[in-house]
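Fig. S4 source data, part A: sequence.
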Amino acid sequence: MDVKKAIQFMLISTLAFACMNTTVKYLSRFNAFQIVLFRSASSLFFTFGFLLRNKISFAGNNKKLLILRGLVGATSMSMFFMSTKYLPIGSAVSLRYLAPVFAAIFAIIILKEKIKPRQWLFFALAFGGVLVLKGFDEEVSGYGLTLVFISAVFSGLVYIILSKIGKSEHPVVVVNYFMIISTMVGLIGAINNWVMPVGKEWFLLGILGVFGYFGQVYMTKAFQTASTSQVAPLKYIEVVFTLVFGTFIFGEIYTFWSLLGIALIIGGLVLNILYKEKHKS
């Protein structure tokens, strides 16, 4: 177990995801589905290449679950990209991280798992952050908040589907299905709202998938190198990177209440991760 290396991997991952978030915000004149299309299609270059190089079947074993994971993931991604048009990018990323709360609720209903009382306290802390963010910061759009909430709900459902899939599928096969279906969803959604990219926009649209792919790869490496309790809280550094980029690149202003709300959301979720790892049965 190499904690130092795991931290390095997670820093690379969070920086890559923050770069992707910032690029999405920069490309705000494009329809969200067009961004989904380019982000997914450019990632296919890596997933197809990996599967071909390692002679791994593209088909997978449980096609229904793989397709469902792709559809649910594509919905979550589309809603998140839409929300970035109405919310400061740091706030949108923070709110999307409510996914584990919804995953816990789905786990109770679908997987019959039990949630300890103290975990509900941590979830309440995270939702308290949402109330602070919306209640005291007039810059937070109600419509944007609704979109990112839907994104978080669907992202939470992805966790449950991945749990159902388990180790029966190669991780890159799962990601490949996700990218293929997202490419199709993006293409269908973008047809009637196509905006022709010009100049460097082609490059920025193409690099979305590169950031997304390397973010996923290095996050996976981090979790393989050290324990979940040591690695998982570090993924919230993505919010810090994104806040900094939003401030310096877009001139976004985060009020005291915005920062307090974001801190409560992240604090509640990190405490839940640490508690869950400590009390594993």
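Fig. S4 source data, part B ends here. Residues 239 and 279 are 27 Å apart (CA to CA).
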